[in-house]
Write the structure tokens for this entry.
Amino acid sequence: MKLSGQDRMLLLITVLLAAYQVSVGIDGLSTLPIIAYTIAFGVLLVAGLLLFILGLDVLDSPIVVVISTIIPLSLSIGLVWEYLASYRTPYLLFSIIGFATIILTRSFPVPGKLPVVVLAVVHGIAGMTIFLLPIIFALTGQARMGFTLVGIGGGLIGLGGLLLSFLKTGKPILSRETIFNIFPGLLLVMTTAYVAGFALR
Amino acid sequence: MKSIAAKFRLYWPLVKGLQTGLLLATGLAGYMSARCPVFNLGMILGLSGSLFMSISGSTVLNMWWDRDIDAKMRRTQKRPTSSGNATPKEVLRLGLILSVLGVGWAVALDALYGLVVFAGLFFDVVIYSMWLKRRTCWGIVWGGISGAMPILAGRVLGLGSIDWIGVTLALGVLFWIPTHTLTFSMKFFDDYQAAGVPTFPSTYGFAFTRTTIAVSSVLAALAMGAAAFGIGMAWGFLRLLGVLSAGLLMLAFAITFRPSDRINFSLFKYASIYMLAAMILVVIEVL
């Protein structure tokens, strides 16, 4: 599916926002959150560039499932490391094991629904962490209200992931065309929410 | 006035605006990397003007020399030199005028800078196009060296001498060029075959060419990283360069182990964006 001029513009702004976040937006944090957020926004940046170059058909590639797991996982690692000190090691272990299991179940033939279950569990926990943690911390006064935007970004990435996952399983919530039409906009709104949320926390 | 506009429209494709623009950007980034007084408008104008004329001059001279093989290749047979819209004599005259003015302006600015600019032009036109291009696929190394000269020239103009950072920046461009040209030579394999121009794919096969692209991409990323570190680039920008380099390496890995036309095309495009972004980072760092 060929990209329209408007789609290209949306993707370009997304890429620039992700580049800003990698280079400026996460300065001053400790080492692991910087690494985690660099991976998250870095993947977003490179993915945005590849969408810009190849068009939205690239979303049909099976590797998208693996790549799209990296973003919520690394974002949630960064958030947990910053805000939930007592869960740091367990969450890091969960993320590493979860990601390795996704790669293994996607690389080798596995019978039954195990690959989907693994994907749903890992994605679900990472997604809920990004969605709920900033909102709870903002509502309880442990962070500024602007931080809720990160949660909104988490919700949007979850929505995008759901739309793509159901599309790939052959039971689409929306048609392929509709999903591809809204995807560049969704990606931009999500990235804007993340960047603004981190800046305003 | 109309005839001038018509001539401009005829000659502009001979200059290859996009390629010249990208090389000019590397020259400006090289100059700014020296952290000299970058807002010296006269110097920036001199650098831009002399580099633009020298690069376009060498491009025009290449087209004049290669007009016979360009006419045999589908991709290039519409160029004014091969389609007959511009006569060989006028193309040669244009190429010589641009080259002499460009190199002359460069020498007037600074002798060493002028020498590097001249070396770029000489390697490109004489060594690459006239001597090696039709004899060996390794000629592209010399084409690559000439492509690396603008960034070195810019650095030399800002610094007044050749240092390891300038050489490393030049190596970054040198190793980036095969990512670009070899991908091109695979995409237009039949064209080059028809014209009888030896290429890596026709000499060593596609698998070796892909491996060369992958190795070259790794070396380009390493060289750009080392040069950025040497310039004293801020950590944030180094992180961003690292991310962009990781994307380049990922595609290089993919082209080696999961080759396809699509990956070829994306690496080809991504490599250009990578180089432009790296140059912008160098410039922003100084501003």
About this structure: The mean pLDDT of chain B is 91. The CA atoms of residues 226 and 276 of chain B lie 17 Å apart. DSSP finds 14 helices and no strands in chain B.
